[in-house]
Amino acid sequence: MKHLLLLSLCCLLMVSTSAYSSSLDSTLQKMAGSAVQGYVGPIVSGFGADLNGGWFHKAPTAEMYGFDLEFGVVAMGTLFSDANKTIPAGVGGEFTFDAAQSAQIASTIPNYSSLPANYQLAIRNQIANTPFTVDLTGPTIIGSKTDTVKVNFHAQPITVNTPGGTRTYQLGQTSINTGVTGLLDNVKTIPLAAPQLSIGTLVGTQLTFRYLPSVKLNSDIGELKYFGFGIQHNPGIWFPNPLPLDVSASFFTQTLDVGSILKTKATAFGINASKRFGPGAVNITPYAGFMLESSTMTFNYTSTLQTPDGGTQQVTINLPLKGENKSRLTLGLSIKLLFININADYNIAKYNSFTGGLMFII
After folding, report:
1. Contact of 261 with 302, CB cutoff 8 Å
2. How many CA atoms lie within 13 A of 310 on its CB side?
3. CA-CA-CA-CA torsion for 304, 41, 14, 22, nearest 10 degrees?
4. Where exactly are the structural domains of the chain?
5. For 266-277, how does the pLDDT look when each residue is reduced to its tens digit (9 = 90+)?
6. What DSSP assignment string belongs to 268-300?
7. What is the pLDDT of residues 148-187, one digit of tens each?
8. What order of strands is seen across the sheet that includes strand 174-181?
9. Element at 2 (helix H, strand E)
10. What whole-number distance in Å separates Cα of residue 209 and Cα of residue 231?
11. Where are the beta strands (DSSP E) in 122-221?
12. What is the dihedral of CA 123, 125, 130, 131, to 10 degrees?
């Protein structure tokens, strides 16, 4: 079972381990959070939508004591649209330029090439040590590999302490090619699968768990750790007359850590309802739910940045990013055949997704 989840995490691990590739690494470490969100936002939102899906395929029954044990696997997939493949207009934020990029910006100063070499170095150092507000254009992480992310620098003055005293220079507008492409090259969906166990029913309540033993991926990345749990409660247990539907209030949360490089948390809560048609052994159960949800993904790693004077410095990167889905409407169908339950549903949200499950019933 653990290998199923590991395989489904391939896309995610490509993103986390790509922190060690030069072009993406050197670009991410210089972006402010809003700019990074513009580039990696679709994968953050897609993975968060996956994690928050597949938790239920029915509401627990309104009974005081019962035994209902299910275990199996759930599979999720978030769908990407063409709009998710390019950085939205107006996305940007603070950006710190490296030595080569600082030189490109400095060259926009009128008569820059005629300045003394020590003046030029002072200008480049000042640019490299100043965060500038920029705009981004180009592909997101799921966009085309034939397109690259550009940093659009706006014309503005800069004050520099030169060997001849404090001077102000006018920097011109320019566009800098970062060399960062759409890493996942127009991928249509991001898949995920997870083992899941549910047990109930006690006082109209059912518990659900997702768990994997810690798995060491490699010496560079570290261990994969995954745990989640949820609770559904049917308030009909407290009503004197039975409700026409099984209804429950629900809460689900989970964490997934990939070594110290990547930490993910997803949480969802809301209501869901279901109605069973047929006897206990063979039946069909339509279900629906409305959930409020959130997800965060934090990248954390150390890298090396080149300075304008030819040296290097170690930089620790900590990027907490949020998924864009805030709520979802779930519509699904569950089919029970003796000791097996199969379900599928579609989730309507900012990032639409689908989930399915195969459960064995005891």
Report:
1. no
2. 1
3. -30
4. 2-23+46-84+193-361, 91-178
5. 999 999 999 999
6. EEEEEEE--BS-SSEEEEEEEEEEEEEEEEEEE
7. 889 899 999 999 998 889 999 999 999 998 888 887 888 8
8. 92-95, 132-137, 148-153, 174-181
9. helix 2-8
10. 9
11. 132-137, 148-153, 156-162, 165-171, 174-181, 189-202, 205-218
12. 110
CA–CA separation, 55 and 57 (whole Å): 7
**Cα–Cα distances in Å, from 35 out to 22, 93, 282, 302?**
18, 5, 52, 19
DSSP class of residue 324 equals S
Cα gap 242→244, rounded to integer Å: 7
Question: Could you tell me the two tokens for 242?
Answer: 């039975």
Q: Quick check: helix, strand or coil at residue 115?
A: coil
324-42-148 Cα angle (round to 5): 140
Of the candidates 176, 177, 145, the one whose C-alpha atom is nearest the C-alpha of residue 14 is 145
Q: Does the pTM of the predicted model rise above 0.90? A: no
Q: What CA–CA distance (Å, rounded) separates 76 from 78? A: 7
- DSSP string for residues in 22-52: HHHHHHHTTB-HHHHHHHHHHHHHHHHHHHT
